[in-house]
Fold each of these.
Amino acid sequence: MNKEVAGGLDADELARLHREHLWLHLTNHRQFDHQEPPIMVEGNGFIIKDALGREYVDGLSGGVWAVNVGYGRETMVKAISEQLRRLPYYAGSLATPPYILLAQKLAALLPRLPKVYISNSGSEANEKAFKIARQYFREQYPRRDKYKIIYRNRDYHGTTLAALASSGQTERKLKFGPLPAGFVEIPHALCYRCEFGKRYPGCNIDCARALETVIQTEGEDSVAAVIVEPITAGGGIIPPVAEYYPLVQEICRRYEVLLIMDEVVTGFGRTGLMFGHQHYGVDPDIITMAKGLASGYMPISATVARKSIFDRFLAEPEDTSGYFRDISTFGGCTGCSAAALENIRIIEEERLAEQSAAMGTYLMASLQELAGLPVVGEVRGKGLLVGIELVADKKSQSPLPEKYLAQVVAAAKAEGVIIGRMVRSVPELNNVLYTAPPLIIDKAGIDKITAALRGALGKLRV
Ligand code: PMP
């Protein structure tokens, strides 16, 4: 046997078992017919190591932008294990101290949204938000049916069927229909590919105004909520212009439509502020959060809402349907709440949102130097959430085919840097590379990411 990696097994044996048994997320397993399956075994800071002992700068925070505080945090391990020893689990209508303390902490971070509902994944948090919005209006206006949810093209809100129905990434929806009814799409807010053929600032922010048109067409009495990612992540890294969300909010208020912001990726310092919506000075009615909430050390998500929304669910004792009849079995995992509490303590104590802003500025400046390369259409992002849109031709902005993006990701990996790319999300436009490293990354780490990208993009022959 070669060197043991885990469970008494070496890398070859793990790879054999991998091929035999795994059915991985978002993976075409055919690729493993002719290449070794990657197996990650340990991490420290922003560095991860695979089963063959190779080290990488993790430019993706655990593959899906989750590990905000970085790897190897002893205090996280301690907080989780102490709680598990004391009481690992209790759910249903009974609370536990970590849950109470986490709710208090989140309410302190978002004082206008002091009611905290815990579950375990981003999809679940969004499903809860939709259910809350629908029931809220049914309690408020029993004679109307305000139930529709409006979402944007290119945004992603999750994998469960209603969360998928609310996602504007059509390629992810293929073959899973019929999806739940009552979800209506509006255009995205990416200036580089303005769906209205306009140019900012002379565009009247038509992308935001499209919301009003759809509310009017659908009928304001039928629309419950609009859901947006404050800065679209997987759909191509899209930070809208400053005027966009204030206008969206104004339209929501005018038609009594709830504004749900999905901060599953953008929360907890990722974009240089604690929450992504704070860049825009808006005041959402519901926020969902997950990944950076416990940095992936434990699976936890939250749906937080205004008190005025919560108050609608205060039913009479004999009323069996007026309260929120929803549950999440593992939302009661006390170790998850303990992990989230310690994670937030670290983010605050180490000022990781500020660190993300500073390192993000440095990363953007370095990547802007690549803007002269023939394939680089646009570099965009906020904080440590950055994308590079690749084009075959700068003038026509025709998207670079996915196979070239796959080549760049593979070349960067060969240089010891993990970056990501859009994977079959939006028809014809899977042409954005991204990086979102742990917020503790330093300039040397960022230099490695930019050097790997410069090398890989420079070598690309289109
Ligand atoms: N919302 C956004 C913005 C996401 O990026 C994701 C996951 N990538 C989700 C929701 C769904 O989260 P989960 O995979 O934990 O269900």
Note: The longest strand covers residues 385-393.
Amino acid sequence: AVDISQLRAKTGLITLDPGFGNTGACTSAITFIDGEKGILRYRGIPIEQLAENSSFTETAWLLIHGRLPQRQELDLFREQLNRHAPLHEAFKHHFEGFLVDAPPMAMLSAMINTLSCFPRRWNTATPAGPDEEFYEEAARLISKVRTIAAYSYRRSMGLPFIYPDPKLPYVANFLHMMFSMPYEQHMASPEVVEALNLILLLHADHEQNCSTSTVRVVGSSQANLFASCAAAVGALWGPLHGGANVAVLEMLSKIHHGGISADQAIKLAKDPKSGFRLMGFGHRVYKNFDPRAIILKRSADRVLSQLGVNDPLLDVARQLEEKALTDPYFVERKLYPNVDFYSGIIMRAIGIPLNMFTVIFAIGRMPGWIAQWAEQHADPKARIARPRQVYIGNTISDYVPIDDRR
Ligand code: ACO
């Protein structure tokens, strides 16, 4: 058998895998994906069953603990989520330091990092596995990220903060803190709560995607849970990852307001020189369909008809979807609508402002980030992440004094 480490030491052999398309960086028992068959399972349970029967909070518990909770365990988790919802008053001053209209994603990352300044115990997961104190920290983070998200929005609008209401469940409480329910009752209608709950649940984990890998890379240096998740928010922000739900809506708006037809948009997306991609289409792993997108498409149809939404951007979305699904370019490359395509549409339909789309993705992904961080810390084989490179620059050049440089 070939000893790879010895071979590498002797020859400098390195595998080059840009974007880590075929490199496994860890073992994991959290989320199972079969991209060819369009299968997604959390702890073995099909995403379709969870979407049908579970809630975001129960699914969060499942991801972190590795099994479905007993009733009293779920009750305790809900009690923890309520108890941890308020932010320390010092946070208000921190928020006030941001300019009004600062992007909520920037505030979210900063504030999650700030949570590490109020430590109970920082690195609570040990090789012996997570303990009760870690689970309490997990509940604290899942609860507080929702309050931070809502406050980020209020700050970005120059509006006063609204305290959490302990009587409200997770999603309704978030909508209450964002929109102040007494004034905007429609925001807490059962259809809206249900749709948002489903979006969060479907985003709760997705194995080693860009932001989750960030959690593991940062966590591998034994940085604390909050610092690791704050870094993940940065990774999520980009338009090729979580920011795609914003990019979808911006694209639909550009097409609609620019008088571009769906056919023209498809033509542009197929031209590599145009620099234009159909946002919300394609996926690194799913090569037939994204099972989350199928569930969300049904939800989008339901929500739009229940709320009687009539929106020209949503018509553009339907036309693009219809045309791309039969166009040979998209069919050959296996480019199908992904979860961000429909989540953007639903969030727009239920009145979530654009600058909160990716923030909501982050709230949803938090249980996955936490579960992955804990799994990594409990893995005795885990090592600090330190990829190699294939160097293509000059191997040696002489230093030239500044007056001699040409
Ligand atoms: N529109 C047009 N062409 C596309 C698109 C698209 N959305 N996505 C991929 N392609 C083309 C590429 O140009 C490439 O064509 P080529 O083979 O002729 O060169 C081929 O399909 C393969 O694309 P890659 O970029 O190599 O695929 P990769 O796996 O690296 O990227 C990604 C996946 C980032 C999701 C890509 O499909 C994309 O940019 N999609 C739009 C952004 C988006 O929706 N991101 C959300 C992803 S899901 C999530 O984060 C929750």
Note: The CA atoms of residues 262 and 319 lie 6 Å apart.
